[in-house]
Amino acid sequence: MSDGPAPPGLRVLTQLLTKAPAGGIELCTRQDAGALVQRGHRVDIAYGMDGQFSDNVEAAGIEMFGPFPFAFAPRSAPRDIARFIPAARWARSRHADVLWLNHFEHIVWAQVISRVARVPIVCQLHHIPNYRRVSQLGHGVAHFIAVSEFMRRTWIDSGLAPDRISVVHNAVPAAEYRFGGSAERLNASERLGLPGGAVVLYYGRILPDKGVGVLLDAWRRLDLSRRPATLVLLGSPEPAADATLAEKVQRVNPSTLRWFPMQASVLPFLHAADVVLFPSLMPEAFGRVVIEAMSTGRPVIASRVGAVPEILDGPMTRFLVQPGDVGQLAAAMDSILDWRTTEPELAQLCADWVAVHFPYDAHVDQLERLLIRYARCRVS
C-alpha cells in the first residue's frame, strides 16, 4: 500500500484511562496527540474516569469526551458490549478516519467502536500481551505499532504476524525534558528542600517488581561518610505501603532518604538529580524513564531487561546492570556518583544520545505516516 500525500486534517480518535495522570501510556498518548494537533490533525479523546489531567490536554487543542467504560470480560460480554454503545455513537458522530488504540486490553471496546463508527483500528503496543488469544482478538486491526523491537518480537511470539507490526520507538518532546545545568540543579534542589551533596533519583511506581527493594539494599552498601548523598524516591505508593519495602526503608539511614508523592511534572526532580536509577525487574516494554532523564543531561543506571538495552547500547552499555544484582547496582552507583568532577562532559553526551537516537520529531513522523496509511483501510 502506498502512503501517498498526507491528507489535510486527519481525524483521529484515541482514549485515556483517566483525565488524571495514570502512567507512561497516558503520558505518551497525551504528548503524541498534542504533536499531531500541532501538525494540523484533529484528535478526540475518549476517557474512562474524571480527573485533573484534562487541563494540559485541552490546552493543546484536543477535545475530551466521557467518561466511557472500556472494560470487557467474557462472562459479562452482552452487558459490557451494550455499555460500549454510547461511546460508539459518539465516535460515529466525530466522523473519524482512524481509531488509534493505546491499550490492547481494550481491544473489544475498540472493535465495537470500529464497527459502529466504521473506522479502522491502529493499535500501539505499549506493554506485554495480556490476553492469550492475541491473534483472534487482533483480527480486524489494520496495523500494530510496537514501541520497541523487544515488544515487536514479544507480540510475534504471542501470535501476531510479523508483517502486521511496525516499530516506532518511544521518544519524548525535548521542551518537556529540558537540559539542566548547574544553575537549574541548584534552583531545583533549593525548591525541593534537598540537602547538599549528590542526589540519586528513582521515580515511578514504588513496588518490589520495579526493583525498589534492590535499590534500597544497594544504597545501604554505599559509603556515604566521605561524600554526602541523598536518595530521592518519587512516586506512589509510599514505600511504607509495602511490608517488604517498609522493612528495607527502616534499615536505611533516614538522613539520606527522601520520599515524594508523584508530581504533575518530574522536571524539577530531574534537574535536582545527579544520577537516575531504573532498576526494574520486569520485562520493560521500552524504558521511557531512561530517555526522559538522559534528555535533561543525567546519566541513568538501568537494569538489562526488556527493551532497555535498545536504548543503552554502544558506549552507553556501561550503565546497564543485571536485574536484581545488589552488588552490581551499588558498584555502578559508586563509580558514577562523582561524574560531575571526573567526567563533566557526560551531561551533554547523555542529552546528545537521546537527541540523535530517539528524536521526537522523527517519532511523530513515523506515527503520523502509519496513522495516515492505515486510515485508508476499509472496515468490513
Shape: elongated
> In which range does the helix fraction lie?
40-55%
Number of helices: 16
| Spatial sequence of strands, sheet with the most strands | 3-2-1-4-5-6-7
User: Helix and strand string, N-terminal first?
Assistant: EHEHEHEHEHEHEHEHEHEHEHEHEHHHH
Poorly predicted runs: none
Could you please describe the fold and organization of this structure?
By secondary structure, the chain is α/β, with parallel strands linked by helices. It has two domains: 11-171 and 359-375, Glycogen Phosphorylase B (Rossmann fold, 3-Layer(aba) Sandwich); 174-357, 3-Layer(aba) Sandwich (Rossmann fold). The chain is built from 16 helices and 13 strands. The strands form two sheets. The protein has a seven-stranded parallel beta sheet with strand order 3-2-1-4-5-6-7, with helices on both faces. The protein is elongated. The model has no long low-confidence stretch (mean pLDDT 93).
Question: What tags apply to this protein structure?
Answer:
alpha/beta; 6-stranded parallel sheet; 380 residues; 13 strands; 7-stranded parallel sheet; Rossmann fold; 2 domains
Protein topology:
Layout: E1 11-16, H1 24-38, E2 42-47, H2 54-59, E3 63-65, H3 77-93, E4 98-101, H4 107-117, E5 121-125, H5 134-137, E6 141-146, H6 149-157, E7 165-167, H7 182-192, E8 198-203, H8 212-221, E9 229-234, H9 243-250, E10 257-260, H10 267-272, E11 275-278, H11 288-295, E12 300-303, H12 308-311, E13 320-321, H13 326-336, H14 339-342, H15 346-357, H16 360-375
Parallel strand pairs: 1-2, 1-4, 2-3, 4-5, 5-6, 6-7, 8-9, 8-11, 9-10, 11-12, 12-13
Helix pairs in contact: 3-4, 8-9, 8-13
